[in-house]
Write a structure and sequence with these properties.
Structural class: alpha+beta
Strand content: 25-35%
Order of helices and strands: EEEEEEEHHHEE
Low-confidence stretches: 1-5
Largest sheet: 4 strands, antiparallel
Mean pLDDT: 84
Number of helices: 3
């Protein structure tokens, strides 16, 4: 289905404790949509099972402080993040250089791949010789 592993696409989004993140399974990263420099690595997230994280609502990132789950600060919330295969199946497939539809359940393939095509259409730019991007 895809022509190039670097082909542009519409990235999915996921809300963690009220903060919207862009999900990029290809590079294993959540990026805060409003502040893209704020990133959460997916290195310790499960691909096929939910992952439990302590999310710090002050930093909009993984909580790195001391303490147990039972005595965590009020601004830290326990969040269950769905499996990466559900959050960004196309990005995960591109990470492993397999066909885009590999991790998409059969009953969702048409819808998910159609959404990717919409993202491609939105990212299309007209190039003119010597004129740059318009």
């Amino acid at each position: 289905m895809r022509k190039s592993k670097n082909m542009a696409r519409k990235l999915p989004e996921f809300t963690i404790a009220g903060t919207l993140f862009t999900v990029d399974g290809r590079i294993y990263e959540f990026r805060e949509t409003a502040a893209p420099w704020n990133q959460i690595s997916m290195d310790h997230f499960w691909e096929d099972e939910p992952t439990h994280i302590l999310f710090d609502k002050q930093t909009n990132n993984i909580y790195t402080g001391e303490g147990s789950i039972s005595d965590r600060p009020d601004h830290v919330e326990l969040v269950v993040v769905p499996p990466l295969m559900e959050l960004d199946p196309v990005g995960l497939a591109r990470r492993y250089n397999v066909p885009d539809e590999t991790y998409i359940p059969k009953h969702k393939r048409k819808q998910v791949l159609a959404e990717q095509m919409i993202g491609l259409q939105q990212n299309t730019r007209k190039h003119q010789k010597g004129k740059g991007i318009k």
